[in-house]
Amino acid sequence: MVKVLTAFVERSSGRLVAVLLVTALGLAAAGLTGPGGHGLAVTSPWYLWGVNALLAVGLYGSASGITRDAVEDVRIVVAAVTVGVALKAALIAAVMYLASGSTTAMILGVAVAQIDPLSVTAMIGRSKMSGRARSLLLAWASFDDPVTALLTVYLVTTTLSPAAGGSMGGLASYGAGLAANAAFAAAAGAAWWLAARRPARRPLKEHPAFPVVATVLLAGLLALAAWQFLMLGVALVGLFYRPRGVEALVGRVTSVAFYLAAFVLGMLLIGGVDVGLGLVLGLAAFGAQVVAGLLIGRRFDTADRVRLALGQQNGITAIILALALQPHVPAAVRVIAPAILTVNVLHIVANAVWDRIPVPVPVPVRGGAHAPRPAPVPAPFPTFRPLAVRHVLAMGSHTRKR
């Protein structure tokens, strides 16, 4: 029974159903607190630290799941998480401004601009994409999470915070944040390198107690990152800081964080949802991925390009960013929640439709190229009686001469 439920939850549709059930439980729990209250003070330090901790766990889980061969197309990955994220955020922001006329609503589009790495990881084993396209989508989904998180913080700082000091003050704050993230990752990297390269008979990483100590230190790093909002640093740390045997633990903790975030989201939905604007946001996010996917994957074949274009999914990062935006934008949760539902439903339906479309398989020819097999051309004369044909032609020629 447990295996059946696990397999169901790992599918995109099963994962969506599980999230909806947990969100409904959160909504029911908020209703039990009495009319008009959900029991959450979204401006309290504990709420803010808890949201940051959930985001740090999610970002580390996504980054630590990147394999070495997942970044073989480094230039394409860099383009996806820089140009791709900026392009998607700009497209979604433009649609949201046209739909609402509010600059604040434009910020909500950044929260759903990224691709959920947990959903991609669960889907990747059943996908019909090539290995190269799978690696690109997984790396794209893992790296655009911290970029989106930092972009959200920058936009909130420059547009909504009265202490930002204008755009230059927000830009300076953003630069200082990047420097702090780099220093955090560099310190963790130096410690990890020393543990692996210690000039001794046996490096520290080979000591039996090292996995336990490294896991405790990892918890401390995540707590520090949540306190100082070092989300890009957490993602960078996840690329190399991987204690032996911690993969299963990270997967379980990330799943718990995901469903805990969905439960808190449900509690905040006691104030209602904005179905219209949420539907527009979801459609804009999915459409922006179609544009970015077709551009980023232009060197792939048609099947892979389409699957990259239909790869938009939202999950833990979008939910947590909605929770993080709630103290600054009171409409964040009631707009982003239906947008997440819209994006995931579109993903399931669009990919199911594409799976039913037969795609012609090219036939390999000499030289390593792929081209369709040419249709046979009928011979002008029967090839199985060449002597008779020549004899008839010779007779005709002899007759004309006479």
TrEMBL record:
Regions crossing the membrane: 46-64, 76-99, 105-124, 176-196, 208-241, 253-270, 277-296
Keywords: Membrane, Transmembrane, Transmembrane helix
Name the UniProt record assigns to this protein: Cation/H+ exchanger domain-containing protein
Species the sequence originates in: Sphaerisporangium krabiense
Taxonomic lineage of the native organism: Bacteria, Bacillati, Actinomycetota, Actinomycetes, Streptosporangiales
